[in-house]
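Format notes (please read before filing issues)

Several people have asked whether sequences and structure tokens are stored in separate files. They are not. Every record keeps both together, in the order shown below: the sequence lines, then the token lines. Line labels are part of the format and must not be stripped during preprocessing.
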Amino acid sequence: MAAPGVSARRDAALIRVLTLAVLVALWEALGQTRLVFGEALPPASAVAAAVAREIASLSFYRHLAVTLGEVAGGFLLGALPGVAFGLAMGARRVLGAAADPYVAALATTPKIVFLPIVMLAVGIGPGSKVALGAISAFFPVAIAAASGMRAIPPVFVRVGRAFNLRGGQMVRMIYLPALALPIVTGLRLGLGVCIVGVLLGELKLASVGLGFLARDYYDQYDFASLYAVVAIVFALASLANGAMSRLARRAEAHR
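Then the structure lines:
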């Protein structure tokens, strides 16, 4: 007999598969009838065929490599300063109180509004997409790191000092175990919005990348290929989210 946890996960997986199957069947039916959105909603079978064509095309991987490089660069350039800034905000209460209103306002601002400024600063090439991804990733990571730092129980710090732990020992034995989960959660959110920022930049102004490819198919009224690019982006983002979720579970298990 399966353990309760295993059974629950199996049931959840079954529900997800059945839900997806129903949605795909409904999509196929609506696409075949052309009654909803007309040509703008191709059948799921046509989108699947377009996905296969993209995967078999060498030019697709050139666009994919550019987007992945921009996402990786933007994520690193946004996440690392975000962690450092968030830890400083959390450790210094006065600094945090002073910075919080500005961070909150900028965090909720749609990052696409920074694209003209970014283009003036770094041009219209890949650097502008990397910068937009970095700006997008910075704020959720910084907010999560600051919140994690503020949530560390003061008694933990006092106990560490009572045992005369040095700075490195405090970081390793007190701070890192307490901060692992919030920082990983912030990184997970930051990666998601970094992908969005890069793709928005490519949609607006690019000659290569998955965002450009989607816009190009839209301009050609090749909606099946457009949906195929969206489906591939969704699959890649889901894989990245799954990897970050596993990191979050490991961080939780080691707390």
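For reference, the curators noted about this record: The chain has ten helices and no strands. The mean pLDDT is 86.
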